[in-house]
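INFO  loader      accepted 1 record
INFO  loader      residues=228
INFO  predictor   begin
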Amino acid sequence: MKVSYLDHSGFLLELNDRYYVFDYYKGVLPPLNKDKEVLVFCSHSHGDHYNPKIFDLLDERGMRYRAVLANDIHDEKRLSKIERSFVEPNQCYRLAGGILVETLLSNDSGVAFIVSTGEGSNYHAGDLNDWYWEGEPEEDNRRLREIYHREIGRIKGRHFDLAFVPLDPRLEAHYADGILYFLENVDCDAVFPIHYWGDTSVIHRFITEYPQYQSRIKNTETAKGEEI
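INFO  predictor   done
INFO  writer      dumping tokens
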């Protein structure tokens, strides 16, 4: 399995028989093999996670593709010509090609994805995170945290080959709360921080403050077709 970072929360995974694109926002796609199908996953409707330009880019490359979209994405004019499936939180879907898609409820919008095939199992958080905002009402922060802990509890103890988890510097002292809870409760070989708004220093900060996780945390910025 090869991993390529696109931008923000966007990644391209290359498997033996297909590609997965998660939450394309912007960025350059690497060269693609036309013999492989592309599955485009969009976790929710926010502009930094859903950009229909991805379909134009795939059309330009002459690629075959399907889309798996959270049900809060309302873009029927653009999507009417695309083979697509809409998914709801806390559901399980079996797609053609032996692909199992499970969803968690995001505490912001849409879903988090768990995608499993014969080549492995991968988790993409979308905007599911421990969103503890300084200055916001404690009741709101507590509610968001409770939802996050409940949803991660649904996958506690499971094994994933790859995970893409927010590490957002805007949360200040709480920037790592979500990824720490994930690492403490979920078995994953490689974790790529996402949603850090171009502030690459936050990855170094996390590894420095929590060196016990250094072997599992990957430098997202250097994932350019990295073999995992």
